[in-house]
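FW: tagging you since you asked about this chain on Friday. Here's the raw sequence from the shared folder, copied in full. Didn't touch anything.
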Amino acid sequence: MLGYEVDFGHMQAVSLISAERYAEKQVGYTVTSVLLNETHDFLRLVINSVREDIISRSETFQCLGLSLVANVGGREFADALAADVQRVLCSGTIRPVVRKKAALALLRLYRRNREILVPETFSQQMLNLLDERDLGILTGVVSLLTGIISHDHRGYESCVPKLCAALRRLAENKDIPTDYLYYQLPTPWLQVKCMRALQYFPTPEDPEYLRAEVDVIRQVLSTTDMVKNVNKNNALHAVLFEAVRLADALDLGADTSLLEEAVATLGRFIELNEPNIVYLGLNHLSQMIAPDTIEAIKAYQPQVVARLHDADISIRRRALDLLYNMCDESNAREIVGHLLRYLVTADFHIREDLALKTAILAERHSGGPGGKAWFLDVAMKLVEKAGDFVDDAMWHRVVQVVTNAPELHRPAAEVALERLGAGAAHESFVKLAAYVLGEFGRALDPNRHPPARYAATLLARYKEAGAGTRRVLLTALAKIAMRANDDEPLRKTLGELFRQNAVHDQVELQQRSVEYFVMTNVPGNPARLGAAMEPMPEFPARENALERTVAPGGGRGNADPADAPRGVPAKHRAAGGAIARVAMPSTPATAANGGGAPETPGLAHVPTMGLEDLLGGAPAPKAAPAPARVPTMGLEDLLGAPEPTRASEASDASALADVFGAVDVSAAEAAPAAAPAPPPAAAAPSISPVVNVGDCLKKLRASDNGLLYEDAYLQIGVKSQWRGRQGRVMFYLGNKTDADLSGLRLSVSPPAGLHARLAPAPAIVGAKKQVQVLLELAAERGYAELPTLALAYRAAASVPGGQQSLVDFETTFELPYGCHKFLEPWSVSAPEAFFAKWHELARDGAQDVKVVTVAPAVAAEGLRAIEAALSAVRMGAQPGLDPNANNAVAGSRCAYSASSPGGGDEDAFALARVESDANNRAVFRITIAGSDRGTVEGVRAALFSQIL
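HL: got it, structure written out here
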């Protein structure tokens, strides 16, 4: 393992298999089974020895050999030993304990090489084996048969009568030895195996055999109930659920009574208090959905809806799957209504799947009178409420449906305008509303909803929107401007917006703004280029991409990007030179010529509103030089006090009693000079902290003043102040003993992104004296790791005999000064402003999502304790800002010296969103978004230190 050759004793194990004594042979078989797998070359050496044991007359040796084959046997074992194992299985003179091992060994070999058992030669032997009276052999044989027919049942159809006879014998006649009764149940495991094997065969054509299966299923359905004994319960329900699967697999034609009985049995399970039984009932009902069972299953819709609010997330997921599968035209509106109401309170683990399936059901069942209008109402509410749990594919699909349904154009525009005015702030909804108003705002009543009104609504959202949303808003406003022929003030207002964004740092927004200004505000262009702003044509008929994201097991796949609303910048043209119509953008448009002028014939002589640099004219003015880097040393202005040149020592020993009191650094006395220390003694006691250093670190992460470290000789308190990107920390080092502490050394190791300067520490701290050492910090950017402090000193300690011995002590521990200390709370009055910044950071910055279980004390107080912890780590908690009253949001910002790409003074942000679990008060989903990864990780570590 360290480069040496290792011998595991393979050859010795192989040689032991050939031994004559049982003890040696057993060791050889055991070691070989543990150390070797079926691909190991050493196994070839034991094949002959194993064969000799299998065909021997010693039952013990046969069992050892068959156990090795069943555990390790591979392709070569199958070729060499299959015939011998088969002879052992079919021999009537060999004891049952050996034959049942042979059945399992033969199953292992068959899985490695299916050619060893062919129906033409083995099916008759299988029929004889199914007549075995010994239940141990029969159990192994049925396992072997199931393994064979799971690949191909052809050739083994004659086994169905034998399986039916065995099943009836077990379930009805109970003709079995008492050793095979499990809680008075006749071999439930063998009943399950027989039923599972029957599911691989087609429905029997012989009515006698079919009646045998149906009779057994009915008996199991009618006699199975809940009992107090857990083990008996498990056995009963194992047989019951396998009987339900068998009933579902049978083709009984128009007779659905058996399926209805199975559904009724499972339906009773939904109302029980046993979570495992409820889960299995919901899961099996979902699997049984079919045209001939759906009506029976729909009768349990109220019970399934109630299970949406179960405490167990697994049950909630199965209830959602069942509602999704049982939904049809008759109950679609009721189910979708339930899901929409549940969406508001659903926990975050299930919200994404819930929103997706609600959208699919709403569109799938939107036919019939009023169906399209109902779908529009559901889709709008869904995109608005689901928030972060819907992706762009969902609002893209809404756009397609509305575009292809002219009767929805006006209602969609009215609903979008109404909800935007009511404060709907999520960016997905803003994009959907902007698209709808840009395309279908022309259908609104101009007297009730003049273009200036809804243009102003969109303009108000533009300021706080992210770049992706701004692209949609720009195109929507451009379309509104092109239609506002008689509203010159509106055209000028929107033109000013385009002018301002023509110098945007994002090329996509810059290009669109230039093109839209030229098209809408240059005289003559609106009439000449109006074709570019005509309504988009209908989308070609295509399958709903959301349908493909729901896998059969309830998972998610990938939406088809072709389903996105078509977005092209105005420069793209159709064949023949005609200007193509501008679509609402959902995919970024590429900039031409590195962000230069659009290559559009006919616009060469158009005035360029003073943007010659963008349209190929005069070069742009040089950018202002970046501000100089903020010095990391010399922070005299931070606290308004002169910079101390050296550490100071208090003149009064009583100062040690209040290490956190106000200190006048300028009036402190200078520390005495270092004195040579005597040599240490050979033996000395050890020094260890008398406080929990971790607890001190946790408290100081949230506080500016407190105790940092303390042992029997030295106490260190800290007092800090913070302003912007700078911080000042004063260490108060107090000598608790009656002797001097000598050789004092302090050093700070800051992480990358943090600059630190520590004033020199005095070499000696007098008895009962206190000294102060200043630490100056400056943050250049966000950082995740904490700075560390290395401390060393020499103390005089008492040793047995009354003598004094000098003890040298060194330690290193973390300082609580993470990047969160430089943050300042950031508050906004409107939710849209906060969430606009949130989505901008999630898109352009860094994001971290964790689901955590908080400490019991925090869980007891709930969200209030979380908000207090956020405030403690300088995150400005803003109660009531999140639309969900059970969530909390907080925000902070800081102007690092290198927070902007150019190293300027642009603020760095850190935002947090805490979502509570409706079913567990101790579980929260915490999402932190920040301008950079270091800030996100630093804030997360600080917050988690307070709540975990």
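FW: The radius of gyration is 39 Å.
HL: agreed, and Confidence is low (pLDDT under 50) at residues 553-581, 586-683, 898-905.
FW: great, closing this out.
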